Amino acid sequence: MNAHSGRRIALLGIILETNAFAPPTTEADFRTLCYLEGDAMLAEARKTAPAMPLEVPGFMRSMERFGPWTPVPVIVTAAEPGGPIDHAFFTRVMAEMRERLKAAAPLDAVYIVNHGAMTSTEEHDPDGALYQMVREVVGPGVPVVATVDLHANISERMVDSVDALISYRTNPHVDQAERGAEAAEALDWMLKGGKARSAFIRLPITPASVTLLTAAGPYADMIAEGQRRMTPDILNVSVVGGFVFSDTPKNGIAVIVTARGDKAKAQALALELARGGWKDRQRFIKTLTPLDEAVRLSVETGSDRSRPAVIYSDAGDNPGGGGRGNTTWLLSALHRAGARGVLVGVFIDPELAAEAHRLGKGAAFRAVFNRSGETEFSKRFAATATVKALSDGQCIGRRGIYAGRSIDLGPVAALGLDGVTVVVGTRRKQCADPIQFECLGLDIANARTVVVKSRGHFRAGFDEFFRPEQVYEVDTAGLTSPVLDRIPFRHLPRPVFPLDKGAGWQEPAWATNPAGA
User: For the whole model, what pTM was predicted?
Assistant: First the structure.
């Protein structure tokens, strides 16, 4: 392709899911996972196993179908879910993006890839600030499309600053590339003269993420109904579940419908979907498996191979939601009860992983988890352990959200603690792919209980071993506990369901007077 042929489309994004109760996310966190500028973005996107959000290569592949175009790579950076982004770093990246966008003029369109649930150490809506900055630079006539995670928290500023906002439709998230492709299709339509008109409704429902699966349940029904109601007049329907732990005034399930030219049609469908979700709100309450019940089941399962194996979500400590991956409630309880045939992963403790590597395979020692310091949730736990296997933690995901993506766990070790084997890693990442055990030679099929520090993405990775009825979400304490009344929220738009059982919803003013085309 001629370097200056066809449409000039800028690509950029900052990706972070913020847990307001976790330590701040720093520049080092972004540069460790993904920080790409200019042509390095394009080179990464063309790799077989890219270490970047899959929306970008999905977008680029799709754009190729629509004729000559010139990608204008700006910056894309991402960090593992964590605390608010350091505001100084955020402003520096924004300034660099602004200058690169200005220097790239004229542009025909912009594609923004981001999570949508980011906060900074100084503001609640840096995603909106990013969108607004892009719009200010390129002006009102340049199409701008953004894709977001279905755990995004949507602000009016986000919707108003772009022509279309497209969210994932699967949880576990296995459609990132498809949504990038959809963004390309939307931009192609707009570049051919199409005019997008959007309607946005945010409901006072801030559910725990365990209720936002898309195979079944109230959220799945909202998404399915939105897709069923797609017509040639509707460009996109996004039902965005939100991420309650961001603790912002813009939290709440959001419905965004984008129509091809007729805003009234977008409003009518958005209102219908929102009414259905509000009517169904009681279904967004989830009962977890108590810790003692989970331990009892594991002991019984380990002593009776005629019983089906089980997999547990250590729900209170999901690194994929900002958890630190180092709580010991479930691990210590299983060890204390003498459970057998248990695999636990991935416990994040760089010091312990390094010690295991120094000692070597076969070494026996006193393993102290969280020796570098305890917090409210990350208590110390010690047990006699044997180093069963070691790995550099470099692998390629094979299923679910990590399929085909490079994964870097840092040095990892498999430690045997009697009937429990723990995978101890260095770099924080939720356990959502069997490769995170298999890279150490561990046999998942032979395990009686598997414990994963993941909220729900493990379902798409481990479903070859466990049917839905073998999956349990365990009530453990931590930064991602789905029991929301334990969390000291300060900024949610109260009253809000399910925290406030009597919360009400007032329909938008335009419900009785929809806009024209």
Answer: 0.93
Residue found by looking up tokens 């919360």 in the block: 503
Residues 493 and 472 in one domain: no
Same domain flag for 252 and 387: no
Please tell me the distance from the alpha carbon of residue 309 to that of residue 113, in angstroms, as a whole number.
Answer: 39
- Same domain, yes or no, for 173 and 205? no
CATH of the domain at 99: 3.40.50.2300
Q: How far is Cα 493 from Cα 514, in angstroms, rounded to an integer?
A: 25
Q: Both 401 and 421 in a single domain?
A: yes
Integer distance in angstroms from the first to the last C-alpha of the chain? 39
SS3 507: coil
Phi, psi (5° rounding) for residue 502? -95, 15
Query: How far, in whole angstroms, is CA 120 from its chain's centroid?
Result: 17
**Bond before 73 cis per omega within 30 degrees:** no
Looking from the CA of 335 toward its CB, the CA atoms found within 13 Å total 19
What's the pLDDT tens digit per position in 462-507? 999 999 999 999 999 999 999 999 999 999 999 999 999 999 999 9
In 3D space, the residue among 192, 194, 256, 259 whose CA is nearest the CA of residue 232 turns out to be 259
CA gap 235, 166 in Å, rounded? 10
Q: Quick one: 23 and 98 in the same domain? A: yes
Distances (CA, A) of 411 to 257, 369, 374, 408, 498: 45, 16, 22, 9, 41
* Residues 148 and 114 sit within 8 Å (Cβ to Cβ): yes
Q: How many domains does the chain have?
A: 3
Taking only the tens place, the pLDDT of each residue in 425-451 is 999 999 999 999 999 999 999 999 999
Return the closest-CA partner of residue 109 out of 2, 190, 15, 13: 190
Q: What is the DSSP string of 23-41?
A: PPB-HHHHHHHEEEETHHH
Residues 215, 155, single domain; the answer is no
The verdict on 350 and 240 lying in the same domain is no
Whether residue 19 is found in the same domain as residue 156 = yes
Q: Which domain does 14 fall in, by range? A: 1-194
Q: Return the half-sphere exposure (C-beta side, CA atoms, 13 A cut-off) of residue 36.
A: 23
